[in-house]
């Protein structure tokens, strides 16, 4: 089965001439010989651009490769700009599977004899279909949310086996690239595929997606920025999820938004605020914010609110990454390129031997032209390409844990460009980041820390006298033990010094006695020297007297 799939992938690559994308200097002789041997698989799309050929090949290989191509489209360090832009066009839309089969899966997962036990108006024809799952509409009959319109998301049957097989092949290909590419260590192809495996397998678990949705909803409870539909967790399983159905306008349907009178400038600014709030306030962000997953509420067009769906891919940042990113953003906004260079070196992302002044100058060359321009005049894709090229010059290694963040930031750029091209991203984001940094480092951070730890301190307060007494008593015992250990060490050193001194004296007197004997000295002198030698040997084995 694996060999058959490998042949299918190889045939697809040859059919679209993807071997032409590999520079000859990077192609081992064995691959070149193999290509000649596969003469019956010619390139049938010579008239298309390399990026278009790669996109068509991935679409023909199926959902795993489509999603991988979508992820690669955000990795401008790995691909030329034209290919990355083509991969961004990949659509995660596939033919739906039989609705009757979906109904059976729902009934089995929820242990229903019939779909009518729990749902009214179940639509056999799916509302939407993607590579991992498809969605059906219905109305809840009982329990939490009774009477509400819902959507039921169902994982495609028998998809796990195909995904596992393709992931194993990807890992093999990544290992080959890591070995043969001159830039393999820095680009970390194996780590990229490993991160992709984790992301993709997370999408297969709808129980995890339900938990993600619940977390995001709690983070934005009663927020005017973002509304997350309610998930009915009682009716959600690993392969089935039931969620409130929302009615919104697709965020890329600008004509409808304008006709409804939506404040486009405010909508664009709120998109930026949603991103930075998720990343820096919550450290938990929706990492698949493409237009198909983001809608705008029809209510209050003067005070627009986003609606989010599809929470299979979320990102998290630890405290160090979040602090590092915030400081970098602020340094960029303040045009403090020296600070940016130092942060990269201090974090270990750029080797310590790199010249800071040269790195600072290179960053300034890339970033300075983009300031004081509206979003319409800024190409973040171009900036990213230049930044990654600069990083390659200074041996910066790609950080796989930030792949999702880069992807999300590009989606935010796309949303802003679509909704309000004149948006000043820097002006919108800078106050938010400055406020966040003040909360992390200023007096607010101290007060928040006191507030967070006050219950714990109050709980431990009655124990403080006992803890203090135990500490002082242990300190006294530790002092006594330390004094005893010090005395033992001094005695040991004295003993070794004693033996060394008398050992040297023994050796000297033995040598002297031998010389007296050989040179024919008087017997009384030789005997006296021998007696002293014997006494010295005996003293070297004797224990030294203890001294206070």
TrEMBL record:
<dbReference type="InterPro" id="IPR004147">
    <property type="entry name" value="ABC1_dom"/>
</dbReference>
<dbReference type="InterPro" id="IPR050154">
    <property type="entry name" value="UbiB_kinase"/>
</dbReference>
<comment type="similarity">
    <text>Belongs to the ABC1 family. UbiB subfamily.</text>
</comment>
<dbReference type="GO" id="GO:0004672">
    <property type="term" value="F:protein kinase activity"/>
</dbReference>
<keyword id="KW-1133">Transmembrane helix</keyword>
<dbReference type="InterPro" id="IPR045308">
    <property type="entry name" value="UbiB_bact"/>
</dbReference>
<keyword id="KW-0067">ATP-binding</keyword>
<keyword id="KW-0831">Ubiquinone biosynthesis</keyword>
<comment type="similarity">
    <text>Belongs to the protein kinase superfamily. ADCK protein kinase family.</text>
</comment>
<dbReference type="GO" id="GO:0010795">
    <property type="term" value="P:regulation of ubiquinone biosynthetic process"/>
</dbReference>
<feature type="binding site">
    <location>
        <position position="153"/>
    </location>
    <ligand>
        <name>ATP</name>
    </ligand>
</feature>
<dbReference type="InterPro" id="IPR010232">
    <property type="entry name" value="UbiB"/>
</dbReference>
<keyword id="KW-0997">Cell inner membrane</keyword>
<dbReference type="Pfam" id="PF03109">
    <property type="entry name" value="ABC1"/>
</dbReference>
<keyword id="KW-0830">Ubiquinone</keyword>
<protein>
    <recommendedName>
        <fullName>Probable protein kinase UbiB</fullName>
        <ecNumber>2.7.-.-</ecNumber>
    </recommendedName>
</protein>
<dbReference type="GO" id="GO:0005524">
    <property type="term" value="F:ATP binding"/>
</dbReference>
<keyword id="KW-0808">Transferase</keyword>
<keyword id="KW-0812">Transmembrane</keyword>
<feature type="binding site">
    <location>
        <begin position="127"/>
        <end position="135"/>
    </location>
    <ligand>
        <name>ATP</name>
    </ligand>
</feature>
<keyword id="KW-0472">Membrane</keyword>
<keyword id="KW-0418">Kinase</keyword>
<dbReference type="GO" id="GO:0006744">
    <property type="term" value="P:ubiquinone biosynthetic process"/>
</dbReference>
<dbReference type="InterPro" id="IPR011009">
    <property type="entry name" value="Kinase-like_dom_sf"/>
</dbReference>
<keyword id="KW-1003">Cell membrane</keyword>
<feature type="domain" description="ABC1 atypical kinase-like">
    <location>
        <begin position="89"/>
        <end position="344"/>
    </location>
</feature>
<dbReference type="GO" id="GO:0005886">
    <property type="term" value="C:plasma membrane"/>
</dbReference>
<feature type="active site" description="Proton acceptor">
    <location>
        <position position="288"/>
    </location>
</feature>
<comment type="pathway">
    <text>Cofactor biosynthesis; ubiquinone biosynthesis [regulation].</text>
</comment>
<keyword id="KW-0547">Nucleotide-binding</keyword>
<comment type="function">
    <text>Is probably a protein kinase regulator of UbiI activity which is involved in aerobic coenzyme Q (ubiquinone) biosynthesis.</text>
</comment>
